[in-house]
Amino acid sequence: MASLGPWVGVPPDLLRFIRGVCTAWRSALPAAAPLLLTVSGPDAPRHRQIQPGQLVSASFLMAGRSFHLSELPTGGEFVGSSNGWIAVDPIWPGIFLLNPTSGEGFDLFPLRNDDDEPVLKVVFAPNPRPTTTPPWRSAARAGSPTRDMRWTVMDVAMAEQRDKLADLVYDAGGGKVYCVTAHGDVHVFHVPGCRRRRPRVAPLHANRAGGLFAPPYDTASKLTGAKSIFLSGGSLHQAWRNTTIAFSSMTPGGGRFSMAKDEIVVLKYDPERRPCWDALADLGGRSVFVGKNNPVVLRPEDASGVRPNCVYWIDERSRFQPMVFDMATRTSTPHPFDAEAPGPARRPLCWFFLNDKISH
Fold it and tell me: Domain KIB1-4 beta-propeller, which positions (predicted)?
């Protein structure tokens, strides 16, 4: 029998479908295929909450097909997805990890802190099994496991009052986690290569002279309610989304800056510039998938059906509707997958990839 090679762990019904599609699609799967992870069953009463026994499915966006993966042995808050794994916070005893393509799952050691802040998002190493020493991070706090299998929890010093962590991305190649705040500030969590060394967190902008954002983005940084951070082409990027009604503000020189509801601004970090974050007109032909998943950047040639210069996001305020923001038209529209109408019986959770490291 021939070896499955990179197809190991892919569900049999998905494998059968892959064999039946064209060569271009097969070459894009499984690593680069953007999937939409969903759970079946009645809507949970709480935000992002899922119930034990719910069936996890993956919708293949390029073909409008869905594939059943496995059942969730535990319930709780859905807090992350990375490299084919998903994370659920059952409140106690700790984070539960599940590989829905294989059904493998296990509990991490307890993650609690004195004020019992909720875990908002978790990112982790490509192989998070207990035999490895992966970095784990939470957007509520920054933390990592120590030799005695306990968490090291560190507070992040905010430059501005009432600011808070909003999103994070794990850079496996650099051994770092980048966290962005609600105001667009960035902190770097350095992952030690040796267990004996203590992890450390530091602000990315040690020298704030000249400001972080030029007008009008210095104002927009406080008005955009959703922040995402991702790596593309070796550089840090932020995506700011206006989650409320359209707004307009004056700019220096008498101009006016406006953002419609669900409009997104993408900024790129350049440490040699002042201000060091500059808004982009496009993503150089790439597109990014953001949300509770560790963000993944794709080019149209990486996976058929991916549109260039788009931000794919999940509208958590509207039944987790999958959305696409086109940087050319400056508009967000429902993803064509929404035509399948998941409804109460099938609720989207996040974008899902078997391998996060594709183009960066």
Answer: 68-319
Can you give 290-303 as a three-state secondary structure string? CCCECCEEECCCCC
Alpha carbon separation from 143 to 58, 116, 189, 190, 198 (Å, rounded) = 30, 14, 9, 11, 10
Phi (first) and psi of residue 195, to 5 degrees: -60, -25
Alpha carbons 303 and 293: distance in angstroms, whole number: 18
User: Which segments of the chain have a pLDDT < 50?
Assistant: 1-9, 20-28, 30, 44-46, 132-142, 146-147, 341-343, 359-360
- What confidence score (pLDDT) does residue 16 get? 53
DSSP string, 195-264: TTSPPEEEES-S--TT-SB-TTHHHHHHH--EEEEEEETTEEEEEEE--SS-EEEE-TTS-EEEE-TT-E
Query: CA torsion 280→286→290→296, rounded to 10°?
Result: -130
Q: What are phi and psi of 96, to 5 degrees?
A: -105, 130
Residue 37's nearest CA partner among 82, 76, 89 is 82
- C-alpha distance from residue 285 to each of 30, 137, 278 (Å): 21, 30, 18
Q: What is the pTM of this model?
A: 0.84
Q: Per-residue pLDDT tens for 176-215? A: 899 999 999 999 988 776 666 677 888 998 787 778 999 8
- pLDDT attached to residue 135: 44
Give which of 132, 87, 44, 65 is closest to 344, Cα–Cα: 44
Buried b (16+ CB within 10 A) or exposed e, 108-137: beebeeeeeeebbbbbbbbebeeeeebbbb
